[in-house]
Every structure is written in structure tokens, then in C-alpha cells.
Amino acid sequence: MPSTLTPQQAWGLLEAGNERFTQGTVNHPHQDADRRTALENSQSPHAVIFGCADSRLAAEIIFDVGLGDVFVIRTAGQVMDDAVLGSLQFAVEEINVPLIIILGHDNCGAVTAAVDAMETAVMPRSFMRSLVERILPSVMAAKSKGVSDVNGTVKEHTNQTVHRVVETSSAVAEAVAEGKTAVMAVTYSLSDGSVHIGDTLGPVRA
Predict the structure, then answer these.
(1) What top-level branch of life does the organism fall under (predicted)?
(2) Paired strand residues for 184
(3) Residues 138-185 pLDDT 10s
């Protein structure tokens, strides 16, 4: 059955989990055999986390959640493609997830490659080029605001992705307009494990 949480309540659970993580008081909830059995035939996650594929950005760990709590999508540099958009549509339309988190992090390798490509006018080869091409609009948006460092660009890229998701996915846009779902930019600090809110669309505080 779908989650009964509001976007605000969903973020409250994730925020509390991240606080436990940063303080070293994690609960490791919903990771036992009973939880696994309960989820055999259905799921009702309270958030989608669309984040970078970086090995240091394990969503379930940094938000101290367990099986069935979050619907996770990951690509390098949280770059969108048809598979990502289809996954978001499924989460919103089929399981009515009330919150979409766009999760970036400092010192992101994909964003660093895009910043370097802009500065040197040299594009990486093969499929890395496709990643960089999809991040370059965010690099240009950051530069237009006087931001050129990687971590500042990560924040801008995360914010830009919030707006692109809503502009690109009619399913997400409809859910946001109806107040069913919120889309929130969040950046993660590798050094202390904390998360910081950026742009937000929909019924949840920013």
C-alpha cells in the first residue's frame, strides 16, 4: 500500500536519521528477517532518493533507514536519463512516494570532470562524455552566478536537477502541483556526514 506520510513527515524521518548518523547513534531500523518477510509482496517507501553513484554516498546508511524505507536511484553525478525518469514515474504513479530527494555531495568526480571540461575545452572520451554533457548546463548556470569551484557547482547542479525533474517529468510535475509530492535538493558533506537543503518544489519546508 502507498505511504501515508506527507512530504514534510517523510523529510522529518530522513532528517532525524541523518542526525543519528552524524552523532554516531544509528538505529539500523528495518533490517531484520521480520521486515524482510513483511515486504515480500508490497512496498511503501516514504521517499525516492536520486543520488550520485559514488561509493561514499550510500543513501540507506547516511539516513539510517532500512529495507522498504527508500526507493533509491543512482547514477554518476545524479545525471538524468530515460531510465531515471521512468523510475521516478513508477515511484510517483505506482507507489505514490511523497518525497523525491536529489542527493549530491562535495568533491563529486562527475561534476569535477564537467568543470574541468568547461575550463579546458577538452571533453572526456566515450561514455564519460555523455555524463559531462548532461552536467555542463549546471556548470554554466553556476558560472553565471559567479560560482566556479566544484563544491559550489555541486550545489547548483543539485538545485538545477530539482527543476529539471519537474520540468521533464509530467508525472512528477502533476504530483507536485497536486501537493502529493515534493522535490528537494540535498547536498551531503563527506567530512562530517551532514546534509544541507537546497531548492525545494512542493509542500515541504526548505
Answers:
(1) Bacteria
(2) 101, 200
(3) 999 999 999 999 999 999 999 999 999 999 999 999 999 999 999 999
Buried b (16+ CB within 10 A) or exposed e, 49-59: bbbbebeebeb
Number of domains in the chain: 1
The predicted structure's pLDDT at residue 206: 47
40 found inside a domain: yes
Residue 149 CB-density burial (10 A; 0-12 exposed, 13-18 middle, 19+ buried): exposed
Q: Report which DSSP code applies to 69.
A: T
Residue 158 CB contacts under 8 Å (≥ 6 apart), including other chains: 78, 102, 103, 104, 185, 186, 187, 198, 199
Q: Determine, yes or no, domain membership for 1.
A: no
Residue 83: give its domain's CATH number: 3.40.1050.10
Grid cell of 61 as nine digits: 546508511
Residue 88 domain flag: yes
* pTM of the complete model: 0.94
103 with 51: CB under 8 angstroms? yes
- Only one residue has cell 554554466, namely 140
Helices (H), 148-202: 150-168, 170-177
DSSP, res 11 = H
Residue 71 lies in a domain: yes
